[in-house]
Amino acid sequence: MPEPVRRRALDLIAERVELAGKRIVDVGCGEGGLVRALVQRGARVTGVECGAEMLAAARAAEPAGDERYLEGVGQALPLPDGCADLVVFMNSLHHVPVPHMGAALAEAGRVLVPGGLALVNEPIADGAFFQLTRLVEDEVEVRAAALAAVRNACAAGLFTEQAEIVYLNPVRMESFEAFAARMGRIDAARKALVAEKAPLLRDLFHRLAEARDGAFHFDQPARLNILARA
């Protein structure tokens, strides 16, 4: 089997999916970085986020166009039926509680037009960046559950899998402080853990990262599943 190639997730998606003019829902949009990048590629995008701090940051950012942000969760999207051409889970399905992952994919199917695509991008529990983040939360089980939910949704006939791509997603951090802030924004419990383990995290961050161009770099193995609504 060939070695996974290093690609940015958005570039990988743009090679395989037409984005211009599409109505896209970004589930678990965080601070809205992907939302704005998709708008810059000509899409009409709605970001859905349940974290108050991240949602506030997304709404406060300089807009790229007419994007909008809604408060909500993947298993109960605040959107009408058939309103989207694409639904994206960018490293977010594993944050849905395991019992609700199937419902989140069903919700994606509900808001998609017939033949619309769900793009599920998930980090694989491997590599240096995973070694670092697992000190805050070990996500081996939830990431496996997210992949199982994708497989089950296809087996149940909700989606047809068009492609599965395993690749290396480059992660760039300006500093350890930027990494710690990003990890802590997910929720209050994580923020407390990051603060508690800061010395250990800092040491491992600098040992595992590749320092170049004034920043710190990691390769995160990832999997992109492209699913067509049946």
Structure description:
By secondary structure, the chain is an alpha/beta fold. It contains nine helices and eight strands. Strands 1, 2, 3, 4, 5, 6, 7 and 8 form an eight-stranded mixed sheet that branches. A hairpin with a 2-residue loop joins β7 and β8 (215-229). The longest helix has 16 residues, at 140-155.
Topology, please?
Layout: H1 9-16, E1 23-27, H2 33-40, E2 44-49, H3 52-60, E3 68-71, E4 84-90, H4 101-111, E5 112-123, H5 128-133, H6 140-155, E6 159-173, H7 176-184, H8 188-196, H9 198-208, E7 210-212, E8 215-229
Helix pairs in contact: 4-6, 7-8
Count of the domains: 1
Q: SSE order, as H and E?
A: HEHEHEEHEHHEHHHEE
CATH class: Alpha Beta
CATH topology: Rossmann fold
In angstroms, what separates the terminal alpha carbons?
30 Å
Q: How many beta-strand elements?
A: 8
Keywords: Methyltransferase, Transferase
Domain Methyltransferase type: 25-119
Protein name: Class I SAM-dependent methyltransferase
GO molecular function: methyltransferase activity
Compose a concise summary of this entry.
This protein has 230 residues and is of the alpha/beta class. The protein is built from 9 helices and 8 strands.
List its traits.
transferase; Rossmann fold; Methyltransf_Superfamily; Methyltransf_11; single chain; alpha/beta; eight-stranded mixed sheet; 230 residues
